[in-house]
Amino acid sequence: MLSTRVNKAYRLQLKSVVRQTSTTPDAKSIQSPNPSKISSDMIGPPDPVSNLRKIIFKKPDNETYLEERYRKLRMEVQEWNHNFWAQHNSRFFEERDLYLKNNLPEGKANLTADEMSVFYKAFLDKNWKTHLTYNKEWYKRNLTLLGLAIQVRITKLFRTKESK
């Protein structure tokens, strides 16, 4: 429910920005919302290459050093994740197109799923070590984020108790 509201708000804001910037929307002409002026984190549409949805993290007015560190690390992890999947997917599509070019019989529009499975298996086998390295790094980064998130929550809990 919250995700739907956030997505709607983000799309509305993007439409507003597009209307203000040009009559023909260009992905590069759309500016991201200002993190200190939004009321909550905003989730954007899927990236055409990485297929990941960019999140614009709200910057609270009274953000503590720990909260800022957590927010910036989340942004860094998101960017790292986006870069990995953008490179991976670009490689995948290039290699798939090359495979189709070399293996598509004349007069045929597509290969069957069974015929394509040869390519998929070869691609996964070739990139096995890359995926393993990515997964290890992803777990490390997310455990670090989890530790910071717990620290932020505990700090907020004590700050709330002190203010009462």
TrEMBL record:
Region Disordered, annotated ranges: 20-44
Annotated membrane topology: Peripheral membrane protein
Keyword Mitochondrion appears in the UniProt entry: yes
A family per Pfam: COA8
Coiled coil: none
Subcellular location, record wording: Mitochondrion inner membrane
Claim: Phosphoprotein is one of the keywords in the record: no
Name of the protein: COA8 family protein CBG23705, mitochondrial
Organism: Vanessa tameamea
Taxonomic classification: Eukaryota, Metazoa, Ecdysozoa, Arthropoda, Hexapoda
